Queue: 2 jobs
Job 1
Amino acid sequence: MIAGKPIITSKNTPWNNLETHNAGYNVVLTPQAIAKAIEDSANLNYRDYLQKVTSVRTYAEISINREEIKQQYLKLFK
């Protein structure tokens, strides 16, 4: 996500609602669901792909609390 590329992930990650944010795909872990997400990604036209790239960057920025992560690392290494 930080690289600005739409992602395909399971519904078991902290990064949910990817479809709602046009940032990628959250799928159930079945071969059919994974294949459909890959196929949908491969079939994006260039304009739609660029929209997803912009959306995933925005989603990453609002989803990743850098200060919280920093505090967790400080706590871990104390």
Job 2
Amino acid sequence: MKSSISNFVFGDISLAQVVYRDGIPHPTRAAIGEWLEYADPQKAVDNILARYPHIEAWSVPLNLRGTDGKNYDTLVYHPIGFLLIVMESGQPRAHAMKQAVAEFVWHYARPRDI
């Protein structure tokens, strides 16, 4: 399946390589690694995926056109896959995301009016 790459911006999350499937943004490994500010973005995410292969269940294989004009089979990640990759990262941006998720959960999970 051929798809086109576009940008995605939501709050503090800005991803340069995203494919929309059924209206849902699916970023590439390179886009996730760039957002996490790794020196070698795709390699860093590849290393996370090698350690945590269960995340691959949230990937979708697509045929994307590279900057060289050639088509490549590429995996893109559902937002849950994106979040799972971020949760396994030790980058500062990942730590901030983990804290934001924890605060979100606390806000909606704590007992109300005991």
